[in-house]
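Q: I have three molecules that I believe assemble together. Could you output structure tokens for the complex as a whole instead of separate predictions?
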Amino acid sequence: MVLTLLVVCVVAGGALAAVNGTTAPIIAAMEEKAIQEGLAEVLPEAATFEAVAAEELAGAGEPVQAAWRGLDAAGHLVGVVVQAAPDGYGGAISMLVGVKPDGTLGQLKILDASGETPGLGSKAAERKFLDQFLGLGPNIELVKNQAPVGNQIQAVTGATISSRAVLSGVNAALDAARQIVR
Amino acid sequence: MSKSTSNVSFMGVLTEGIRQAPPFRLLLGLCPSLAVTTAMENGFWMGLAVIFVLACSELLISLLRKLIPDRVRIPVYIVIVATFVTVVDMVMKAYVPEMHAILGIFIPLIVVNCIILGRAEAFASKNGPLHSVADAIGVGIGFMVSLMAIGGVRELLGTGNLKLFGHALLGGGLPLEVVVMLLPAGAFFVIGFMMAGLTLLQNRQKKQAQRSVEHCTVPGEGAAD
Amino acid sequence: MEFLAILVGGILINNYIFSRFLGLCPFFGVSSKLETVYGMGAAVVFVMTLASAITWPLQHLLLEPLGLGYLQTVAFILVIAALVQSVEMVIQRVSPTLYAALGIYLPLLTTNCAVLGAALLNITSGYSFIASVVNGFACGIGWTLATLLFAGVRERVEGPHIPESLRGMPIAFVAAGLMALAFMGFQGLFRGILF
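A: Yes, here they are, computed for all three components at once.
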């Protein structure tokens, strides 16, 4: 009786191990590819990317997960890309933030915002919202229902939490980038 | 259903399964019906996952039904279902990652979806493998259609368009943005009204059936009905 | 402070019924009478807290170190099933009165997506052991609160003043939707009060 259960469990475990052996490498390769494509998209001027060691990121804010230095063909620094995952409405929003050597923002790419409400919070992952960030500097502020001035961006109407989340990721990335470039 | 189902055809079991249409008829599988139906396509993939898990589980349970001692049958069913659920989880993560991220924890939660264990208990443990698979596919399709219907209504009202596999079905879309439809509240409303709609249809059919019976059994009273 | 956030989060902000859609079948199942809600609610809180306490070490001390993360679903659900079974046996022996009040609801908790859901969410949220237990407890309370409120409402939406096709389940769903709208008011609660 218990033997039957045990046999079933062992067979199940074996089957799962087999499937995992097949799918885990695919998943890992896919995640790596997504990051590489994201890096190229966010900092197109760079020819290669060099991962920043974890110790250098030790002082960075909590949403910051990883960073890369973007180098051109001659090996000069053309920018930094920071990967951040701030807490959004229904989970973390994973993003890549491109920062130029002068500390201003390059491109932004949202990797995963599946926790945000579709049609509402998900608008914070769209180009219309993200393009506001281009060229802005550290410590960006959020304004609601009015046109942004200077170092400000306007939140998506009805999606303040998602907008704020993206902003906090970007600000943390900007701070981290400043430390790295130094 | 007893051993006499050998006379019932594969299609018969399948169509009966579709007619059971959770969550509307059998009030089962509510959690995913509300949680993932923010878009029609999510309903498709969730339905597909459930069909796969249900079919494989019912098949295996039916094949093993004479070998599983009665006392451990529930734990064994659970392990079987959980294994197939994990397989679906891993395969979806590898091949359809965006959908996997959208469906989130509701993929592993398929294992406690009352539909699956319910059918295993009610059907697969008592019927042959072919009929069990028919039942699984039928109930699974019924569930998928329900999910897509709910998702379709919510997506259409909430965003003005329907998207399937990357294509917008209504071109530019309608100027509709009833955002509440995409929120939890909207899910409850849509299902509530759809259930009411189905009940209305059902009652109408019943009344029509009654009327034709009366018409037949009371000749002479005839015409204007 | 983190625990306060988790408590309020589990009960109000991310309420399992009105926000996360977990534990809906029993929500509609037992809310037709107020008395049944107390029994089920107590069982849910109890089992969710215990399940959180047991699945956390299972994940972090066994599955992850051995690289067996993909066995999470199977392991968790088996553990929960065993837990529910054992709890039922213990209660039956220790307190027949408690068993009479609670006993029939316990087996239903194995397939309650709220229990497995809480265990899974604890892991994905990256909570510590204590935070996981607090979260399990909080979400159980939230579930019970939602179901209690709903049972109160349901008692009022019965009767001939409801159109025939809406009677029973349909109007219950609409009522739940209205309550979900109300609970949305709790979103952003922390940003206003604590930050």
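A: One point stands out. Chain A has a mean pLDDT of 85.
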